[in-house]
Amino acid sequence: MQSQTTAPKNKSIIATCAILVVGAIAPMLDSTMANIAVNAITKSLNTSVNNVQWVVTVYVLAMGITVPIAGWAIDWISGKQLYLWASAGFFLGSVVSGISTNITGLIIGRIIQGAAAGIIVPLLTTLIVRAANGKDLGKLMSIVGLPAVLMPILGPTIGGFIIDQLNWHWIFYINIPIVLISMTALIIWLPKFNPTQPGKRLDFPSIILFTGLFTGFILGITKFSNTAKWNQSSVLWPLGIGLACLIGYVIYAFVLPKRALVNLNLFKTRSFSAASILLLMSGITLNGAMFLLPLYFQNIRGLGVVWAGIYLIPQGLGMLLTRTQVGKLTDRIGARWVVVVGILIATLSTLPFAFAGSTTNKWFLLTSLFIRGAAVGAFTIPIMADSYTGLSPAQIPEATTATRMFQNIGSAFGTAILATVMAHSLTGKLPTIAHLTTSYNTAFMWSIAITLLALIPAWFLSVKHSGIKK
User: Fold this and answer.
1) Which residues of 136-153 are buried (b: 16+ CB within 10 A; e: fewer)?
2) Which residue range forms the structural domain that includes residue 222?
3) Are 373 and 350 in contact (CB under 8 A)?
4) Do 208 and 192 belong together in one domain?
5) pLDDT, tens only, 263-287
6) Which residue in 111, 126, 227, 307 has a CA-CA distance of 20 to 30 Å to 80?
7) Same structural domain, 461 and 427
8) Of the candidates 150, 175, 199, which is a domain's last residue?
9) pTM above 0.85, yes or no
């Protein structure tokens, strides 16, 4: 039964997944490559690092603001049409960013890119879940998450190579052929995916509250990572606005549940609530560590940008190794035990970095990264799959909106926390190799401790016995 979508069946579902994944490659690749281009952009445009940081920040902000709009739009218009429009928007943003000769033009281009990515990334998951009618989600999530696994690994390496050989403009120009190829595939092969609620009105109070929530938290966290002080007005004001919008939305959704973009009834499903908390925490366990590792290899081991990216490849290979089997295992026994084992292995394999120095055996560290990648793949796929377990088709867009927001806020929060831990470790000390090594060791130890805390919500994920979910 295809229900509300003109969606593929069985054999063609994998092909549909592949087409959608190709469309998400450019947004995910570009977000990681832009981070590594900050120094080059600063020098080229003769501006300050603080100004260039907005090139990264506005992308995340624009993406976060459009995520809830994507949840509404997929109910309103054809999924294929929406994906194509978003891809065209990302193409435009890439062109504007690439041809920019000043910081203002670059920021405008990044806003356009981020807004388009905020539609593409959640739409990817929503359309695949609909195509499968909620079945075999573990296996399918291993395909959906492929760009998320590969791009943080390939992005810094490819970006570093481009900057070395060409210039930072090509960080954005490289998107153009990728997007054109993906749009061609979308036009020819992607099913239509008819809207579930044609003509559904966009709830502007929800959008305004979500915008304030997301913008407030991201700006507050970003300012905190720069100042390392909570009592600064530049930190407290945006965090206060974000918290007020969060409380306002909860009240609004409770009073008018049929109008709110994300219904609070989602959180009555135990596995969704547990998965949401884990996605928030994964900002520190996954994204926080991905922030630390390239810096460790560059600042402590003395590697260049390209080689630092190459050293992260074993972690990506580990993730790829476990993806297919973990998805099948999750479909068979549920998410709980897969995630618990993944968290424990990830903790043990990250532990060497809490004691590593400039002379630690590189093969030992690369092996640890490979094992860590396998473990991270083992717990990220089941979490994403379980966030949709037990939900009706009508709840899928709302669930996607909520989970993507948790992921984005968690990513910013995780990086800010670990950056602050490092800054505090270096307070009053000269940035010698010995002191830098201690600061990285401390940050990795924090990452490990918070990863272990994730065992608590993991216990509330689904578990199956003889095909019966509990």
Assistant:
1) bbbbbbbbbbbbbbbbbb
2) 204-260
3) no
4) no
5) 888 888 888 888 888 888 876 677 6
6) 111
7) yes
8) 199
9) no
